[in-house]
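Entry:
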Amino acid sequence: MTDGGPHAYLPRSGTDDYAVQSYDLDLTYRVATNRLDATAIIRATARVPLSGIVLDLVHLKAKRVRVDGQKRVRFSQTPTHLRITPAGRIPAGAEFTVEVAYDGSPAPRRTRWGTLGWEELSDGVIVAAQPSGAPTWFPCNDRPADRATYRIRVTTEQAYTVLATGEPVSHSVSGGRGTWSFERLEPTATYLAAVQIGRYTLEPRRTGDVEWLLAYPQPLAERVLHDFEPVGRMLERFQDLFGPYPFPSYTVVVTEDPLEIPLESQAMATFGSEHADGRGDSERLIAHELAHQWFGNSVGLASWRDIWLNEGFACYAEWLWSEASGGLSAGVLARSHHAALRLARKDLLLGDPGPDAMFDDRVYKRGACLLHSLRRKLGDDRFFALLRGWTAEHRFGTVTSGDFEALAGRFSAEPLEGLFDAWLRQTALPALS
C-alpha cells in the first residue's frame, strides 16, 4: 500500500490550491522541424489564498506571462514547472486568468512508465499523455480530478490533418497552412486532452444517434475498414449495457507508425498500424478503448490509486463484447484469467496498487474478475442496472472505489463489504463467487 494522500502516485504533478475551469490553447506547429509556438489562456478559481501560481510545463519555455491581463508578473521555470508570482495576492474563491506564451521543440518526458506526452511520428504527431504527459505540450494543473473545458486551435502545414480534443468547429487554409479549431465542453482531465497530426483520410460514420469518425492513412484503408467495422455494433451493445454514449461523437485514429499500445483520450482512441492487420486480431483492444469513454473519460478518477475503476471496467467490457459477439462468454474468460492470476505474484492491492504497479496487467484482470464476481452475486439484471446507474450518477464527475462500493450496496439484498474487502484490500486472490 502506498503512503500519503490521494496524490501520492504523482506528488509533484499539479496542485489542489486552485481549480481550472477552462484551457484555451492556440498552437502553431511545424511538422518538418518539430517547432511549437503557442499561447495558453487558463481560467481558474483559487481554493486558498494564492501568492503564487504553479503550472506543470515540461521541455517548453515560457516567453511571456500575464495574470488577469497584468504585465507586472514575475515567473521562473524548473525542468518540470512554471512558477508565477502575480502583482498581488489572489484571495480564496477569486477567479483569475493566466496567459502564457511559450515555445520550443516538444518531446515526451521520461517516466517510470516509459516516455509520455507529445511524440513525433515518422510523418506527424501523437499525444500519449496518461498519466503525466500533458505538460509536454501545454501548461496545466496536471491532476486527474481537476477537469476543465477546452478550446484548441492548431495551425500546421496544409498537407496534414489535425484531430484534437473536442468537436470540430472550423477549418481554414491560408498561405499553405491549415488551421483547425475544436471545442470540448464536457469536463476533461489533462491526461485525456490530445492532438493527433498526420496525413489522414477521414471517413464519417453514424450509429443511431452517435456520430463517429475513422481517420487513417490511405494505404491502410482496406485493413482499417475491415478491422474497425465492429465499432458501430460495439456502440450499440455498450449503450445497452452501460447507458447512452456520453459524448457528441467518437473518433478513431489509426497511425502510419506502429504503436506499442492503443491510446485513449476524451472521445477519441488512437491505434498503431499493427492494430489494423486486416484479420481483426485487435478487436478486444478496440472494445477496451471504446469502453473507456464511459469508464475513465466520462466517469473519471479522483486519484490514480483507484485506476482499477478505469482499467478493470474496460477489461471487463472486452469480455462482455466477446460474449455479445459470439465469442467466449465473460464467464469462461473470467475463469481463464482467474486461473492465470492464481499463478501470478500475490503482492498487489487492487484498491491501491502503488505507482509502479498501476498499469500492471493484474490490475486489469483482477479488476475485471471483481466485476464478474459481483455480477454473479447480483445477477444480470441488477448488475447491469448498477453499471448504468454508475455512468448516469457520475457522468462527467470524479469517483473513488468507495463511491462504487456504496452504489453497489444499493443494488444488493446482502452486504457486499466482504466481497469488496477481499478483492480490493487483500493481496490473496478470492474465489470467483
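The chain has a mean pLDDT of 97.
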